[in-house]
């Protein structure tokens, strides 16, 4: 049926602004003096250096996910939660600063990545101090311009307990070269792990459907000396996800020594020594027995 009443429309016009981000909200008061206020919104008036990329990973995050947000240019992520409220400090990535308006903070974008984009990782949003139902953001680019319009990422609550996962190889701070094996440990307290995804700099680079959880990662096309952040993301039979702590590795820019690259370098060194084994003198004493 058609509605019985049509809501009245109100509008206001402001002028005289250029190259500035405007925060605004709408406040309504009825005949009895009751007042309601809309969430704070933002709009940039002026020329923009780039549109919002509207891209984040995973596309439909839960409260247990680490969310990587990608930007087309350098600058900061200007963000809040739950309709532009200031996020609790427990959620702030390193070097985040308070914007000072009670609605947002700014976190620096890292990069550029191999594809020329920039990114920042936020979350998981599972702290009891502040429940988070959505993340609101715009990009504050390094040239002073802003993306528009606001972006909103809905955050789905977790049902049950998410799986636990960590990367066991390579280790944080390792130097890598060529094709390496990334290995993860994953378990689910109240169900079973169905698959594990592996991410480099926020992008999925592969997945494993059966334990032991691992993939091979070819680093030969990456810039020498560049640093990359690895994570593993485990999925369980309740469609919950758990994300591992970050592991940072550096792509070798020259010859590297024994033990610095997981897996293949140690194996090739062993194969090199095997032909020399018959030439080595063997000795047997009373306490130890050597076997081949």
Plain-language structure description:
The chain is mainly beta and 292 residues long. Among the domains are: 56-154, Sandwich (Immunoglobulin-like), CATH 2.60.40; 164-266, Immunoglobulins (Immunoglobulin-like), CATH 2.60.40. Helices cover 3% and strands 37% of the residues. It contains 1 helix and 21 strands. The protein has one helix spanning 264-273; strands at 20-24, 27-29, 35-37, 41-45, 56-57, 67-71, 75-81, 97-98, 105-108, 118-122, 134-141, 151-154, 164-169, 175-176, 179-187, 193-200, 203-208, 213-218, 227-236, 241-243, 247-251. Strands 14, 16, 17, 19, 20 and 21 form a 6-stranded mixed β-sheet that branches. A 5-stranded antiparallel β-sheet has the order 8-9-7-11-12, with no helix packed on it. A 3-stranded antiparallel β-sheet has the order 5-6-10, with no helix packed on it. The termini are far apart. Mean pLDDT is 82; it is low at 257-292.
CATH-derived architecture of the domain at 164-266: Sandwich
Question: What is the residue-averaged pLDDT?
Answer: 82
CATH level-3 fold name of the domain at 164-266: Immunoglobulin-like
What is the rounded Rg?
A: 26 Å
Tell me the distance between the termini. 87 Å
User: SSE string, helix = H, strand = E?
Assistant: EEEEEEEEEEEEEEEEEEEEEH
Q: What is the CATH C level class of the domain at 164-266, in words?
A: Mainly Beta
CATH homologous superfamily annotation of the domain at 164-266: Immunoglobulins
What characteristic shape results from the CA principal axes? globular
Counting DSSP E segments of at least 2 residues, the number of strands comes to 21
Question: Structural class, judged by helices and strands?
Answer: mainly beta
Tally the helices: what do you get? 1
The main pleated sheet reads as: 6 strands, mixed
Percent of residues in β-strands? 35-45%
Q: What's the helical proportion of residues? A: under 10%
């Amino acid at each position: 049926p058609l509605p019985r009443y049509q809501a009245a429309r109100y509008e206001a016009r402001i002028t005289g602004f250029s190259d500035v981000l405007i925060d605004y909200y709408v406040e309504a008061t009825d005949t009895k003096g009751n007042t309601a206020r809309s969430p704070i919104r933002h709009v940039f008036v002026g020329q923009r250096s780039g549109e919002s990329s509207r891209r984040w990973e995973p596309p439909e995050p839960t409260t247990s996910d680490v969310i990587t947000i990608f930007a087309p240019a350098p600058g900061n992520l200007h963000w809040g939660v739950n309709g532009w409220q200031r996020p609790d400090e427990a959620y702030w990535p390193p070097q985040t600063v308070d914007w000072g308006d009670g609605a947002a903070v700014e976190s620096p974008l890292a990069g550029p990545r191999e594809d020329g984009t920039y990114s920042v990782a936020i979350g998981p949003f599972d702290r009891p101090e502040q429940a988070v139902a959505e993340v609101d953001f715009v990009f504050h680019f390094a040239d002073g311009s802003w993306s528009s319009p606001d972006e909103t990422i809905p955050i789905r609550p977790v049902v049950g307990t998410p799986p636990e996962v960590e990367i066991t190889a390579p280790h944080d701070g390792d130097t890598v070269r060529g094709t390496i094996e990334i290995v993860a440990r994953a378990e689910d307290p109240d169900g079973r792990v169905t698959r594990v995804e592996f991410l480099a700099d926020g992008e999925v680079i592969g997945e494993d459907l059966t334990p032991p959880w691992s993939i091979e990662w070819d680093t030969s096309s990456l810039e020498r000396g560049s640093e990359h952040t690895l994570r593993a993301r485990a999925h369980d039979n309740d469609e919950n996800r758990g994300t591992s702590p970050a592991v940072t590795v550096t792509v070798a820019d020259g010859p590297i020594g024994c033990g610095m690259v997981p897996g293949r370098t140690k194996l090739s060194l062993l194969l090199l020594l095997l032909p020399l084994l018959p030439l080595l003198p063997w000795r047997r004493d009373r306490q130890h027995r050597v076997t081949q």
